Amino acid sequence: MRKSMVAGNWKMHGAHESAVQLVKAILQGSERSDNAEAVICPPFVYLADIARLLKGSDLVLGAQDVCAEDNGAFTGEVSGSMLFDVGCRYVIVGHSERRSLFGENDAMVARKFMATQRAGLVPILCVGETLDQRQNGETQAVIMRQLKAVLDAAGIHSFEQAIVAYEPVWAIGTGKTATPSQAQEVHALIRACICAGDARIGAAIRLLYGGSVKASNAADLFQMPDIDGGLVGGASLEAHEFLAICEAVG
Ligand code: PEP
Prior knowledge:
eight-stranded parallel β-barrel; binds phosphoenolpyruvate
């Protein structure tokens, strides 16, 4: 049985004090079931402090991005081994904001995916279509292109230690959520594509849905057979919402 997961992407929100308060409130929240993993992905500069707060808890730390290189003269960048050092276990790779605002193409996303794994971290690979692409009937082609770019570069076996998040761009931060059946259709496609490379890896990989997930819609999404949890932006900034989403997945 696949362990479910809820990952909170805090993006560039908050400040040191609010980050600490948010973590403390999440830690004080209700117990999560053993079958669900909760991950928080704060901004880089708060990771080390938050890692100290998480010690001994079952809440896991992730980062929002990583450098494609392992070390060297890359001013402003943060490597996978640095993230591992401070206590991260997951890295979000290829978020649509990185793709659209910071020019990350499929090749760069694949390099970041591999850099994440070289550092012993697990990538949460984001894929998703824009509204125009969906309206033009290109959803399947876009998702397959984004996924295959990583499969071709990293190989099917790399997906043994990876998570894929389907995040329709039109649903991120918009309040418009994909319906459970729209999301399930794409999740089934992603799983079939990975199964085509290796049936065991395809059956075991965890697939998250992201795009305006809230406590009020989480249970309906998570009951779909190929949705193993959520990648949550806005709602992860409120402890009670995040905890309620974690409960819905458990
Ligand atoms: C995200 O940032 O990955 C995301 C899904 O955001 P939101 O939940 O706010 O739509």
